[in-house]
Amino acid sequence: MAASPELPADPGDADFDALQEDPARWIGVVAALGARYSSAPAVPAGEGSMLVALLGRELVLKLYPPFLRDHFEFERAMLGHLQGRLSLPTPRLVDSAEHAGWPYLVMTQLRGTPLDRVWPTLQQHERCAVLRTIGHLAAEVQTLPLGPLPALAPRWADFLQGQRDRCQARQQRTGLPTHLLAQLEAFLQGPVPEGPEVILTGEYTPFNLLYQGGKLSAMFDFGDGLVGPREYDWLGPMCFLAAGDAARIDAFFDGYHGRPFDRGRREALLRLLLLHRYSHLKAQIALPGWQAAPDFATLAALIWP
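The chain above was modelled as a monomer; its predicted structure follows.
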């Protein structure tokens, strides 16, 4: 297939973001690729940060820009590594290939509604049940052998140092309140979670979990995965779903290891949240009024009461 003008050879972040937000510019290319696997028309998925299209009701095609080839390679390995080993379904890899320097995956489509759409309608006991399931799922993933994944992920120490180097600028850009920004450098001098390295999906958020029949039905999207300390993957469900609710926090940890959260770990977790690959507290902390916290210790106690 000839190179297409809709897919620039060497896009930058801004170029790709503009392309991703305008499906009319790329759906023709994805449809042509998808025709190799399905006679169904390609329909933009409308979600996610890559170029993703549904091929009928059975398949999904996910196209990555050249500068995220490492994410493509990690997700491809994760799909194979997780397949059939968890209590929830994950996509089955059908094929991986490349078009004009853009790698892509074809995988099976999963059943269910994205959890972020369902969550506002759930009662407290249903939310706790979901978090208990997520905790159990995270524990399942983290007990698996690492397999080929360490060779495809950055060394944790290197990743964390890079995040430290960029943290001040990132937090300023994403709107961390000025009074907290002034305390950031000193706060980050404290300890962060350490421990045996495990598989990190980077997700367990409501955007990458499906819900059907009154329970979680599937998990997907592993391109942001890493290999590192287990606490990194606690952050998504804690911020987006537990949202400062003690019962929900303890429900997650009940599913994870059968005991309540150790509140003495709050500040170390907050440091890790500030150093997260996509740290953006205004978008991640689903807790009204958190910006008024006078210091990070108070903020940690609000997030993990």
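The first strand starts at residue 42 and ends at 44.
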